């Protein structure tokens, strides 16, 4: 039986997901895993779990830029701010969900991420997204039309619901073998898990899950 794929839950809004995505193809190849990009709506995840995005907290919004800028420098990755942030990623997510072939979808994710965070271009409007599609060799007119269908809109919603059901609460999140790894800083933990060197034991996890709470924030 072939090993299960690395399902990479993404939203183009997140610079952390961009930086993690740049590392994912090589990571997947090292462990003989297929990489499967899964477009989800971060706002939907946050609403479902009663949380807010980093950009919605002024001090954290500034820190996100500082941290992702430094991570990009460490990775040697191009990093340019998009025209606005937060921006509306929905059209780009739907266009991505409209591509059935995983290899082609992977190519498109790289193109859209590179446009937004590598080149600082907008990826919100049909014109902006269409330009990225054309440059990447896709049929922009056909994909934009498909992205407007109820089937594809429902697909993004279904992806988001399924990610929630598997414990996902933000992006980037990698789902594999019933486990979830969240954040660009979890990729090292993911590698150790794939190598069979995960230090976390079922006993330790069970103790945490059943640990009582004696205080709450009101």
Keywords:
Glutaredoxin; 10 helices; globular; single chain; 218 residues; 4-stranded mixed β-sheet; alpha+beta; 54% helix
Give the second-level CATH assignment, the architecture: 3-Layer(aba) Sandwich
Name given to the CATH homologous superfamily: Glutaredoxin
Biggest sheet: strand arrangement = 2-1-3-4
- End-to-end separation in angstroms reads 49 Å
The topology string of helices and strands comes to: EHEHHHHHHHEEHH
Number of strands: 4
Main sheet specs: 4 strands, mixed
Describe the structure.
The chain is of the alpha+beta class and 218 residues long. The protein has one domain (6-209): 3-Layer(aba) Sandwich (Glutaredoxin). Helices cover 54% and strands 8% of the residues. It has 10 helices and 4 strands. The protein has helices at 15-30, 42-49, 58-75, 90-97, 102-118, 126-135, 140-147, 150-165, 187-194, 202-209, and strands at 6-10, 35-39, 173-176, 179-182. Strands 2-1-3-4 form a 4-stranded mixed sheet, sandwiched between helices. Strand 1, helix 1 and strand 2 form a beta-alpha-beta unit. Helix 1 (15-30) crosses helix 5 (102-118). The mean pLDDT is 97.
SSE diagram, text form:
Blueprint: E1 6-10, H1 15-30, E2 35-39, H2 42-49, H3 58-75, H4 90-97, H5 102-118, H6 126-135, H7 140-147, H8 150-165, E3 173-176, E4 179-182, H9 187-194, H10 202-209
Parallel strand pairs: 1-2
Antiparallel strand pairs: 1-3, 3-4
Helix pairs in contact: 1-5, 2-8, 4-7, 4-8, 6-7
């Amino acid at each position: 039986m072939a090993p299960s794929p690395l399902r990479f839950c993404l939203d183009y809004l997140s610079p952390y997901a961009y930086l993690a995505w740049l590392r994912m193809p090589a990571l997947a190849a090292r462990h003989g895993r297929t990489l499967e990009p899964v477009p989800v709506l971060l706002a939907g995840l946050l609403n479902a779990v009663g949380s807010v995005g980093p950009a919605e907290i002024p001090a954290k919004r500034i820190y996100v830029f500082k941290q992702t800028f430094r991570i990009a420098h460490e990775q040697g990755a191009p990093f340019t701010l998009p025209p606005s942030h937060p921006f509306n990623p929905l059209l780009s997510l739907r266009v991505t969900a409209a591509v059935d072939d995983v290899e082609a979808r992977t190519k498109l994710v790289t193109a859209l991420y590179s446009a937004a965070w590598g080149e600082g271009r907008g990826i919100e409007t049909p014109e902006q997204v269409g330009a990225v599609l054309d440059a990447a060799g896709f049929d922009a007119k056909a994909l934009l039309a498909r992205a407007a269908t109820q089937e594809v809109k429902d697909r993004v919603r279904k992806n988001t619901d399924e990610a929630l059901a598997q414990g996902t609460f933000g992006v980037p999140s990698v789902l594999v073998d019933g486990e979830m790894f969240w954040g660009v800083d979890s990729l090292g933990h993911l590698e150790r898990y794939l190598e069979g060197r995960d230090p976390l034991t079922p006993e330790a996890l069970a103790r945490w899950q059943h640990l009582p709470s004696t205080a709450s924030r009101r």
